[in-house]
Amino acid sequence: MTTRTMKAVIPAAGLGTRFLPATKAMPKEMLPVVDKPAIQYVVEEAVAAGIDDILMIIGRNKNALANHFDRVTELEDTLHRKGDLTKLERIMQSSAMADIHFVRQGDPRGLGHAVLRARKHVGGESFAVMLGDDLIDARDDLLTTMIEVSDRRQASVVALMEVDPESIHLYGCAAVQPTDDAGVVRITSLVEKPSAADAPSNLAVIGRYVLRPQIFDVLEKTPPGKGGEIQLTDALQVLAADEEIAGPVLGVVFAGRRYDTGDRLDYLKSTVTLALEREDLGPDFAAWLRTLAATL
Q: What EC number(s) does its UniProt record assign (predicted)?
């Protein structure tokens, strides 16, 4: 656990169009992964890394996010009267584990713009950015490692993961050089969603960042890029090209367990994987899956 105060920013203003019609009236971040909304896994990860001040960047029709992390006294009273203390503890956990704030993005102008909306809340300190589509297994200390590297090297740090070269067009991609730290690379350039032929590596940017506050000045000057949006990748490219602005941009190469909930098929795979690993669900669920597979 980190020993200093750091804030986290969770951009959650997207429309979730890949999950329509389920996300017509419900934020995609509230889609359940087993029995918790995806966004709660992300908040729990931040808290496990020692972060208890979290800002969510939301859009319209995202009130369910605030409601989930608020108390529901009627439900608490009902569970208490019934003596269902296990469920009572679980629902109270989501409202007590962190100090969560909300600000609207306003215009949907991309991830870089969403991060820029956090400037007043973050102030002049380094901060974490955590995307809700990427769930990192609680047994893997990715964010804690990134914070430690950022502090020690006075650097912005990006999480990287090796992917199939044929899938690199779905991600930001990093060109890197080795460092003296095992599992840590220096990022020399970043490309947003390149073709396999143009990609400088098979190291994809996944949804965890620890950023120095100078990123805000760069984002203010970053023009719209791919998709007509202000890309965080473009701002990081500026920092990587000139280390005098805010120190180096480093990458922590993650080889642990990551669950992608931003794609429908991967969302289903993530839900099944996490359910199988649960002590209360896994054995019976695995037996059922074997039976089902035998009939296919």
A: 2.7.7.9
Residue 292 placed within a domain: yes
* Count of the separate structural domains present in the chain: 2
> What pLDDT digit, counting tens, does each position of 235-253 carry?
999 999 988 888 899 999 9
Residue 100 amino acid letter: I
Question: How crowded is the C-beta side of 82, counted as CA atoms within 13 Å?
Answer: 11
Tell me: do 201 and 113 sit in the same domain.
Answer: yes
**CATH number for 191:** 3.90.550.10
Q: Which domain holds residue 165?
A: 7-262
Q: At what angle do helices 73-82 and 85-96 cross, to 10 degrees?
A: 150
Q: Name the pTM for this structure.
A: 0.91
Same domain, 49 and 190: yes
Q: 3-state secondary structure string, the chain?
A: CCCCCCEEEEEECCCCHHHCCCCCCCCHHHCEECCEEHHHHHHHHHHHCCCCEEEEEECCCCHHHHHHCCCCHHHHHHHHHHCCHHHHHHHHHHHHCCEEEEEECCCCCCHHHHHHCCHHHHCCCCEEEECCCEEECCCCCHHHHHHHHHHHHCCEEEEEEECCHHHHHHCEEEEEEECCCCCEEEEEEEEECCCCCCCCCCEEEEEEEEECCCHHHHHHHCCCCHHHCCCHHHHHHHHHHCCCCCCCEEEEECCCCEEECCCHHHHHHHHHHHHHCCCCCHHHHHHHHHHHHHHC
- Do 24 and 108 have their domain in common? yes
Same domain, 180 and 281: no
Q: Are residues 248 and 288 in the same domain?
A: no
pLDDT tens, 168-209?
998 889 999 999 988 999 999 998 888 888 899 999 999 999
Q: Tell me, yes or no, whether 41 and 133 share the same domain.
A: yes
Amino acid at 259: Y
Decide: 240 and 130 in contact? Cβ < 8 Å: no
